[in-house]
């Protein structure tokens, strides 16, 4: 690393753990310090702009395709970079936390890509964050094989290709309070990106792939430009050719849906496409317009991908990506295959129907949450793609989406049901308990859920309360019943903490933007002084 570019190192405010010294090396900490010094203020400014824009929209400012960037949308000539090695064919992608067993199962699953998720699929305890980095390092070095105490062996396959690793760092709204720079916490996104890039970028290049990322919860083109500048500096610092990084952006906020082309443009030398993040998209819709009655959503089960405003969103995403030579990746199939034959077949049938719609719409691949869903997703996309690696040639010039189409929520509006209220309270309570216990990917009611599910569950409760569709007494009664049920099933569950988190993030007069900063700062941070 060129010495003239090295800033002060970050300080580690946590006790050392086993093998942590392999990740928290002086050079790696200096690398993160350099990135933090260069970009911390811009990140802060962008978060302030998020809040200002939220207020403007709440006050009635219209949401539209930006006039100031019309020239970018009207220019027919620009394209994103070609796919990086290992990202040409993405017909099946599997997601999961960077835990050791999950890593082996995902890499062996037959999926083309494994999204190693530091964001919604883990609770960001210090151990989870650093052990996740160690697991990725071990996976790339092919030394992640292990045997459980029960004697179950997990070994990387040697007779077939492994999935390409793509890392999802945490969002811009989160801090990593175990690392400090100039007296302030380091942005969690820079920690997750920086540690992986420093240790694994060149290793991935040597292995025939590259440093690839999924970027979560971006709200506009300026946030995409920030990531692009980070990529440029990181490559310069480590002597990696500019344009080696590839990043797929999750379109999971309503404001980003209005700037898809601009986001691709800002990242065009590093872009790997866009992904349709369903639950976070609905969560963002409520956060942005939840105070308005014409944006009132019914039970989650009734908000399917065939809803007109969701169809508009996904069709615009495919058309935008293929216009610019970028991959369009579909949403999550979260079903967990069961042991009971009829339930198992019903789950696979739902997945098949969902993936058939995506493949027929022009998506180049899609997500699954469990290795057991890889075959059905692959079969569906094989049927459409054949030997082709993607369907970028389907430019979807038939798609014409207006701002009104993206915002036409009222066309599926309806009152919540008692079952819908209970489902949301139950999911939020059980997920909060798991998250506070250090687990971010949780099997609930036959689905593999992550933080996005808890976010949509809690914000729907808040929205229904705000508009008088359910009364507070009913929610509190259901909450008490679900806490009792949780206690019966899990006697060690942190009930007071779960109840407090629910009340602060679901029942407050003003809706907290995310539940994770509150839960993290109150329960997961252990500021034990340690200097590496």
Question: Would you write up a description of this structure?
Answer:
By secondary structure, the protein is α/β, with parallel strands linked by helices. Helices cover 48% and strands 12% of the residues. The strands form four sheets. The chain has an eight-stranded parallel β-sheet. Strands 1-7-8 form a three-stranded antiparallel β-sheet.
List the helices and strands and how they pair.
Elements: E1 11-12, H1 20-23, H2 26-58, H3 70-74, E2 92-96, H4 100-108, E3 113-117, H5 126-140, E4 146-147, E5 153-154, E6 164-168, E7 175-181, E8 184-187, H6 188-206, E9 212-215, H7 221-238, E10 246-251, H8 254-257, H9 260-266, E11 271-276, H10 278-289, H11 308-323, E12 328-333, H12 341-361, E13 365-368, H13 374-385, H14 403-406, H15 418-436, E14 442-444, E15 447-449, H16 451-466, H17 472-489, H18 495-506, H19 516-524
Parallel strand pairs: 2-3, 2-13, 3-6, 9-10, 10-11, 11-12, 12-13
Antiparallel strand pairs: 1-7, 4-5, 7-8, 14-15
Summarize the structure.
This protein is an alpha/beta fold and 532 residues long. 48% of the residues lie in helices and 12% in strands.
Tell me the Rg in angstroms.
22 Å
Shape: globular
Which residues form runs of ≥5 with pLDDT under 50? 527-532
Estimated structural class: alpha/beta
Number of helices: 19
Strand content: 5-15%
Which key terms come to mind for this protein?
532 residues; eight-stranded parallel β-sheet; alpha/beta; three-stranded antiparallel β-sheet; disordered C terminus
């Amino acid at each position: 690393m060129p010495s003239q570019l090295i800033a002060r190192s970050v300080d580690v405010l946590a006790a050392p753990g086993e093998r942590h010294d392999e990740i928290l090396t002086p050079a790696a900490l200096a690398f993160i310090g350099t990135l933090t010094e260069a970009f911390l203020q811009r990140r802060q400014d962008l978060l302030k702009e998020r809040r200002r824009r939220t207020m403007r929209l709440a006050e009635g400012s219209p949401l539209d395709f930006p006039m100031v960037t019309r020239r970018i949308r009207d220019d027919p000539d620009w394209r994103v970079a070609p796919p990086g090695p290992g990202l040409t064919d993405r017909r099946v992608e599997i997601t999961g936390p960077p835990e050791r067993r999950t890593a082996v199962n995902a890499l062996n699953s037959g999926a083309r890509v494994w999204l190693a998720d530091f964001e919604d699929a883990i609770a960001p305890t210090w151990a989870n964050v650093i052990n996740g980095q160690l697991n990725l390092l071990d996976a790339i070095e092919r030394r992640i094989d292990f045997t459980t105490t029960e004697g179950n062996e997990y070994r990387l396959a040697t007779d077939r290709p492994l999935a390409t690793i793509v890392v999802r760092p945490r969002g811009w709204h989160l801090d990593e309070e175990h690392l400090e720079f100039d007296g302030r916490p380091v942005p969690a996104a820079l920690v997750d990106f920086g540690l992986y890039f420093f240790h694994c970028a060149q290793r991935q290049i040597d292995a025939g792939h590259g440093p690839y990322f999924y970027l979560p919860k971006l709200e506009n083109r300026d946030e995409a430009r920030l990531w692009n500048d980070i990529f440029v500096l990181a490559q310069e610092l480590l002597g990696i050719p500019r344009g080696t990084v590839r990043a797929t952006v999750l379109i999971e906020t309503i404001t980003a849906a209005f700037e898809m082309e601009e986001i691709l443009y800002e990242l065009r030398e590093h872009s790997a496409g866009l992904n349709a993040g369903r639950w976070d998209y609905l969560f963002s819709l409520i956060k942005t317009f939840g105070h308005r009655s014409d944006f009132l959503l019914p039970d989650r089960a009734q908000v399917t991908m065939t809803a007109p405003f969701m169809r508009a969103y996904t069709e615009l995403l495919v058309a935008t990506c293929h216009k610019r030579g970028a991959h369009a990746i579909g949403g999550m199939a979260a079903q967990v295959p069961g042991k009971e034959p009829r339930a198992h077949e019903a789950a696979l049938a739902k997945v098949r129907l969902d993936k058939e719609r995506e493949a027929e719409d022009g998506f180049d691949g899609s997500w699954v949450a469990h290795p057991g869903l890889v075959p059905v997703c692959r079969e569906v996309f094989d049927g459409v793609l054949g030997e082709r690696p993607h369907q970028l040639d389907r430019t979807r010039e038939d798609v014409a989406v207006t701002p009104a189409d993206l915002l036409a929520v009222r066309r599926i509006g309806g009152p919540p049901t008692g079952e819908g209220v209970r489902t949301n309270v139950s999911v939020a309570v059980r997920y909060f308990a798991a998250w506070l216990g250090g687990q971010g990917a949780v099997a609930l009611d036959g689905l593999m859920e992550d933080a996005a599910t808890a976010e949509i569950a809690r914000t729907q409760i808040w929205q229904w309360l705000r508009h008088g569709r359910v009364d507070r007494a009913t929610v509190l009664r259901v909450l008490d019943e679900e806490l009792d049920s949780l206690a019966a099933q899990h006697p060690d569950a942190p009930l007071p903490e779960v109840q407090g988190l629910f009340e602060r993030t679901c029942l407050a007069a003003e809706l907290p933007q995310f539940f994770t900063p509150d839960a993290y700062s109150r329960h997961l941070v252990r500021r034990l002084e340690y200097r590496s």
